[in-house]
Amino acid sequence: MKAHDGMYIDGAWRPAAAPDTIAVVNPVDEQLIAHVPAGTIEDVDAAVRAARKAFPAWAATPPAERAARIGALRDVLVARKDEIAETVTAELGSPLKFSQAVHVGAPIAVAGSYADLAASHPFEEKVGNSTVYLEPVGVVGAITPWNYPLHQIVAKVAPALAAGCTVVLKPAEDTPLTAQLFAEAVHEAGVPAGVFNLVTGLGPVAGQALAEHEGVDLVSFTGSTAVGRQIGATAGAAVKRVALELGGKSANVILPSADLAKAVNVGVANVMSNSGQTCSAWTRMLVHDSQYDEAVTLAADAAAKYGERIGPVVNAKQRDRVVGYIEKGIGDGARLVAGGPESPQEQGYFVRPTVFADVTPEMAIAQEEIFGPVLSIIRYEDEADALRIANGTVYGLAGAVWAGEESEAVAFARRLDTGQVDINGGRFNPQAPFGGYKQSGVGRELGSHGLSEYLQTKSLQF
């Protein structure tokens, strides 16, 4: 698979500062598919300088013109959607249909939403005898993960451009080819030189350099809570803004009045989607005592239907981590009802779709983010007990509530300490704010709330 051997900086592909490279491996067959440059401090510095140079003109560009460029970017993504989907499948291992529908379809929708929002958002308002202006923060350092390689890029870059910010992107080292295609799309869409820049590289080198750079005004990071803490500390020392979308251990609360079969089947599908590599996955299924045994049977049957349909996890390290959690769950006394630690095939980083019953809230598999196709089913006695269990982790990113009446589900959801809740299987909304409570992060992505992360306010009094 073709890869650029340089960085996209100031509107052109430029040679990297050092010859070191990163291998890109297909998780399905463990075969090498490409090499990309391993960015250095020098590469990051060049990209930030380009972004700073481009910032004044882009910030002064009328919102309608910025909207037009984002709209053009969306059109390029649509035109190249098959190529992008095939690239995501090659470097992430996602089944092609899922790559087409979700990995490419969702970010196209998000890009379109920001093209519309950039043109319609009120960037100034009258407040008494004041005029309040919403102005771009400046240069954004965007650090994105591998699990949704295009979506996470678009969810940061599109609102930043809409706000009038310029961007330096450091994508995950496992999925850099998708980021390179995105840079090509930005160029084809006519985004001015320096407004968007790409540096591939390792997190501890290029990512850290970007977070620490004095020319970066805001760091937008999606990834683990541990790394998010480090970035928050670094940004705090420099008094720069951060937007952090971190880990999750979301609860799927099935109330007794719910359609149990539907709630369980949708819940299992949610966990297995993207091979469980979703920060907002409903990895804890909470079921009332009276329905517990039936739910366990339904979940085990549903998981057994997935097999290799879900694809592998991203790399050997991730596979070993997930398998380690499955073994720990068994060791801690949880009952394995589907899947297990054994590899389903000799080649590739595959993990069996796994379901545990008799999980207690304090177990590691019920408290820690596994980031693999592993579901824990937990029983509860009453609503108060369900609420205690659901809120009983350090995370608060997402969740779900099922009930016979929507009002019952909403009443329970309002008491959850989490940033986003799906009611009776509510659909993804690209304009709804996404982000977490507690250690799941700081700030929001998507829609007008996501745009606000890249804006700062100025008031003039008359």
Automatic annotation (TrEMBL):
Alphabetized UniProt keyword annotations: Oxidoreductase
Active site: E245
The keyword Transmembrane helix appears for this protein: no
GO terms of molecular function: oxidoreductase activity, acting on the aldehyde or oxo group of donors, NAD or NADP as acceptor
Source domain of life: Bacteria
Family designation: Belongs to the aldehyde dehydrogenase family.
Protein's UniProt name: Aldehyde dehydrogenase family protein
